[in-house]
From TrEMBL:
The keyword Repressor does not apply. The chain crosses the membrane at residues 392-412. InterPro entries: Beta-prop_ATRN-MKLN-like (IPR056737), Gal_Oxase/kelch_b-propeller (IPR011043), Kelch-typ_b-propeller (IPR015915), Kelch_1 (IPR006652). This is Galactose oxidase. It comes from Gigaspora margarita. Residues 1-27 form the signal peptide. The lineage of its organism: Eukaryota, Fungi, Fungi incertae sedis, Mucoromycota, Glomeromycotina. Keywords: Kelch repeat, Membrane, Repeat, Signal, Transmembrane, Transmembrane helix. Residues 122-386 form the Attractin/MKLN-like beta-propeller domain.
Length: 442
């Protein structure tokens, strides 16, 4: 007497087939290509990415977002696309309006007519309303003439809606050498139809301009400029041990000496402000990644440590101990934001394998990495570009377990000979469905 008849086998097999397919459909999604020098902004739990340069060497106008609430330990992230920018865009800077906490301004940057190598000088500011969603281009910034395609700088917006942008590079064509600016630009976006632009007179401006820095606004109105690369690379080292501070109330610069752990000079890194201590005027800045700014470097070099913490009360650097499992390769020209206790890092250039000073498009990332800043641990995130491998693994386990269970059932029931053939047919069929899914996905 048999405990299991053929109907039971069919049911079990059908179950595996259906569950595998459901898994597949749930996991199948569009995934952005690797890129660097994109802009990013976090609005209403959605982390937006704008433009960037792709592996194909084209500057894209794509807009992607991740629902950060959906990010958790060991899940595949789901990507969504928003209406593309009017231009291909990279090396710009973004900020989120304090008036509505949702309008995103993309300022400066190098712009191209989408899908062409032709520069597009049409607008100086692109404004994205994620709620509609809709784009608007601002052709004029009143008062500015030399702000055309200003790039490699970072904007901060204060609680009064004033936007401060230090320096940056100019760009008008491929063949000229760049000028590194030393000005402080103050933009006031009144109603997003018009932007008032000025260059207030400032005191104690840094004698040597620097770019590819990070700018972080503290609650006391000081902007902390960390790292960056100077015209004369030889003095970039001082940009980590003597930070440049800009007081937004007095329009004045000062130098702040930083003690503590040695933190190698870097540019193209990222910084986030942890404000959970802000009531006690005790804010920390967490710095990730970047490339080394050694004098006369002929390629992008790695920096240590990859993660550094600046205590802005004591003005000291510290290096948290972080277990390296699930850590990213050292990235530069990536994006980073803080969401609750998670520093989310996306895209960028893998510095360790770089061979020259032009970002190597074979070394770009489209992975997401998450640093838990409460426990200083990298959270397990399944890379977007490996989600199909992950499916294969799941699927193989599904088949493997299915086959094993079947074999146990079959040995028990004594239907070995006929059923082996049946089993093979079923697995083969599933495999074909699986192959089809892969093709459908790509
Ligand atoms: C924007 O966010 C800040 C900080 O969370 C909050 O204090 C402010 O009330 C918000 N403003 C609007 C218009 O929602
Ligand atoms: C500028 O350089 C890019 C990349 O090297 C190239 O694709 C583009 O054709 C150049 N544009 C002009 C106007 O020379
Ligand atoms: C800004 O410039 C534009 C174009 O020149 C002009 O139409 C507008 O009135 C100006 N706005 C202000 C506030 O000056
Ligand atoms: C930057 O500005 C300077 C001075 O106006 C000019 O000579 C140079 O050609 C510009 N460079 C680029 C890349 O646009
Ligand atoms: C830049 O140089 C390239 C080759 O040297 C030339 O073909 C191109 O016309 C130049 N572009 C500009 C804008 O001068
Ligand atoms: C960097 O290069 C310049 C010019 O070639 C040279 O004068 C200088 O000594 C170099 N500096 C270092 C630290 O190697
Ligand atoms: C910053 O340093 C002060 C003084 O040592 C300390 O009390 C505070 O906890 C530190 N802040 C953080 C966030 O670690
Ligand atoms: C993520 O999951 C792993 C394995 O379950 C666990 O060891 C780790 O502590 C988790 N990390 C976080 C930040 O929850």
């Amino acid at each position: 007497m048999t405990l299991f008849n053929m109907n039971t086998f069919r049911k079990i097999h059908y179950m595996f087939l259906v569950s595998s397919l459901v898994f597949f459909i749930a996991a199948s999604q569009n995934i952005p290509n690797p890129r660097y020098a994109q802009a990013s902004a976090l609005v209403n739990n959605k982390l937006y990415f704008f433009g960037g340069k792709l592996e194909t060497n084209t500057v894209t106008n794509e807009v992607w977002y991740l629902d950060v609430e959906s990010l958790s330990n060991a899940t595949i992230h789901t990507w969504h696309q928003s209406p593309s920018m009017p231009v291909g865009y990279y090396y710009g800077t973004s900020c989120v309006s304090v008036t509505d906490n949702s309008t995103i301004l993309l300022i400066g940057g190098i712009s191209y007519t989408p899908n062409t190598p032709n520069l597009d000088f049409d607008a100086k500011v692109y404004i994205f309303n994620p709620n509609k969603p809709q784009w608007k281009s601002l052709k004029f910034i009143n008062g500015s003439n030399n702000f055309v395609m200003r790039n490699n700088m970072q904007a901060v917006m204060n609680k009064y809606g004033q936007i401060f942008i230090y320096g940056g590079l100019n760009f008008t064509n491929n063949n000229s050498s760049n000028t590194v600016y030393n000005d402080m630009n103050l933009l006031l976006a009144t109603d997003y139809n018009d932007i008032l632009w000025s260059t207030p007179s400032v005191t104690y401006a840094p004698p040597t301009p620097f770019i590819q820095y990070t700018a972080t606004l503290l609650s006391n109105g000081l902007i902390v400029y960390i790292g960056g690369i100077q015209e004369t690379q030889a003095i970039s080292a001082t940009l980590m041990t003597t930070l440049k501070l800009f007081d937004t109330y007095y329009n004045s610069w000062s130098d702040q000496t930083i003690s503590g752990d040695p933190i190698e000079s870097r540019a193209g890194h990222s910084a986030v402000l942890d404000i959970k201590y802000s009531s006690a005027q005790n804010e920390i800045i967490i710095v990730y990644g970047g490339y080394s700014t050694k004098t006369n470097a002929t390629s992008y070099n790695t920096v240590t440590p990859d993660v550094a913490v600046l205590n802005t009360t004591t003005w000291t650097w510290s290096t948290p101990y972080i277990f390296q499992a699930h850590a990213p390769p050292l990235l530069a020209l990536h994006s980073a934001v803080l969401y609750e206790n998670y520093m989310i890092i996306a895209f960028g250039l893998n510095v360790a394998q770089s061979t020259g000073l032009t970002p190597d498009t074979n070394l770009l990332s489209n992975d997401i990495y998450i640093l838990d800043i409460q426990n200083y641990a990298w959270v397990i995130v399944i890379p977007a570009n490996q989600s199909s491998e992950y499916n294969i693994l799941q699927f193989a386990i599904g088949i493997g377990v299915g086959v094993a269970i079947l074999i146990i059932f079959l040995s028990f029931s004594g239907y070995m000979c006929y059923s082996k053939y049946f089993n093979y047919q079923e697995v083969h069929y599933e495999y074909l469905v699986f192959q089809y899914s892969i093709h459908y996905e790509s």
